[in-house]
Amino acid sequence: QVQLVESGGGLVQPGGSLRLSCTASGNLFGPRPMGWYRQVPGLQREFIAEILNNGATTYSGSLRGRFTISRRNATNTIDLQMNSLKTEDSAVYFCKVTLTSDFWGQGTQVTVSS
Questions:
Q1: pLDDT band, very low/low/confident/very high, at 98 (cuts 50, 70, 90)
Q2: Which of 35, 48, 59, 69 is the most exposed, fewest CB within 10 Å of its CB?
Q3: 105 in helix, strand or coil?
């Protein structure tokens, strides 16, 4: 069994920053590829970024430069630093860990509004 818990969401003004964290626990058997996604109600879940066991990263082209993914293997945690936030960044943010299948967290709400 694998569990993921996201934290760090909230309300921020346009142009502001937030840092999300996601900690995985359970039968991980070592560091695993992990990633961040987001979803607006009624729309498809959108890929943001992924980070592999060795720290290699992949980003959505539209978010590269404003969002940065990092990981802390000692605690099976990934972070997402989000800068220069825009109202269209408002969404529920989910993290994912990949073993033989994907496991998802419950999500954390990010609202960008003045």
A1: very high
A2: 59
A3: coil
Q: 76-96, pLDDT tens digit by residue?
A: 999 999 999 999 999 999 999
The bridge status of strand 2-7 relative to strand 18-26 is antiparallel
14 to each of 34, 66, 89, 114, how far by Cα in Å?
Answer: 27, 13, 9, 6
Coil, strand or helix at 74: helix
Q: ∠83-86-87 over CA atoms, to 5°? A: 145
Secondary structure percentages of the chain, helix, strand, coil, to 5: 5, 55, 40
| pLDDT tens readout for residues 3-61 | 999 999 999 999 999 999 999 999 888 889 999 999 999 999 999 999 999 999 999 99
